[in-house]
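[worker-b] picked up task from shared queue
[worker-b] task type: protein-ligand structure
[worker-b] ligand name resolved to S-adenosylmethionine; SMILES cross-checked against name lookup, match
[worker-b] sequence length check passed
[worker-b] input payload:
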Amino acid sequence: MTPERYTKLNQVLDCRQPDLTLLTDQVHKPRNIAALIRNCDAVGIQQMHAVTPAVSHRPFNGTARGSQQWVDLIMHDSVENGVISLQHQGFKVVAAHWSSRSINYTDWDYTQPTALLLGAERMGVSTRGADLADAHVIVPMVGMVASLNVSVAAGIILQEAQRQRAVKGMYEYCRLEELERSRIFFRWAYP
Amino acid sequence: MTPERYTKLNQVLDCRQPDLTLLTDQVHKPRNIAALIRNCDAVGIQQMHAVTPAVSHRPFNGTARGSQQWVDLIMHDSVENGVISLQHQGFKVVAAHWSSRSINYTDWDYTQPTALLLGAERMGVSTRGADLADAHVIVPMVGMVASLNVSVAAGIILQEAQRQRAVKGMYEYCRLEELERSRIFFRWAYP
Ligand SMILES: C[S@@+](CC[C@H](N)C(=O)[O-])C[C@H]1O[C@@H](n2cnc3c(N)ncnc32)[C@H](O)[C@@H]1O
Ligand SMILES: C[S@@+](CC[C@H](N)C(=O)[O-])C[C@H]1O[C@@H](n2cnc3c(N)ncnc32)[C@H](O)[C@@H]1O
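[worker-b] inference finished, payload out:
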């Protein structure tokens, strides 16, 4: 491994945010999953969650630009199991979803442990997922079309999470546990 | 036309921002163009610009969700012609591009007439496009992968433009010229 590569892996690990994640509710288009994984990598999410039936981990097209090797994908067999298991781990689950209780996405405090729940192109977030979520957020839109592409919506919301966390200095020290950090480093360095 | 439809068309027209636009530099994947058009519609961009060889306007897949009927696509035969014609119309051209003169995307004032220049998946913004641009902006990233999907990057930057313009009250009154506004209304109402 070159010294540059060694430095890069360490820098990226020092920015990973174990208390920020994303959960997809039946998003099954591979290119959407791939773009979401790429978004996760960009803001420092190490583990992404998906409700099956989702695509298998491998047959992604170019959209991921190899990001699937840097982000772990964890599968759940129902949105209920996904949401509840994250809540048990201390996450607030925030659905990107329109409802009477929706707030503007900038009004959520993403420096608390947050899992962003996203819906599929046609169906959106399921009723069950929306009911279980701790909050609903929306990105304001002023056009004719009713929604954004799921990876664009996720990118916008995660960028706000990153901004808030940067302000709080959460990218300035390693936030992974020692053991977890070395396990990931080893996996990345010697695949 | 139902009264609801009539109201909706008028509300959307009253939010259109004639002094905000987007220019693609050889982005040719139809689904990326489609997602970019959808982003434009969402923040109130009425005219989007593309440098050919770009895809023709029609064969878009589902990603646009019909947004191509609400946003006009204007073609240019080179990035040079595209950038210079926009600059002649008074736009500052801001390239989403890494260089020694890049600034954080939140540090640009998008309430001035702004055209966002975006590059293709592999090539990025061309050297010629980058040289001609008035400024370069980047969305900060902390992961292993070097870039975001083009529609995600555009969505994040345009959302910041929308936020700044909302703060300035630029969505609170109709910003299209009378004649232009009725031409578009007519086209939308009686296609
Ligand atoms: C294409 S949208 C789904 C639209 C679906 N037909 C509906 O009405 O819910 C896919 C997912 O992207 C997210 N999304 C898209 N646009 C959004 C916005 N403006 N605000 C928040 N989330 C959005 C939501 O999670 C949504 O379920
Ligand atoms: C996939 S990227 C191109 C990457 C290309 N290999 C390069 O190095 O420029 C496609 C386009 O999306 C935009 N883009 C992607 N990520 C960006 C970021 N973090 N900041 C600003 N623009 C970005 C740029 O306009 C870029 O040309």
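[worker-b] attaching auto-annotations
[worker-b] The longest strand of chain A covers residues 20-25.
[worker-b] releasing lock
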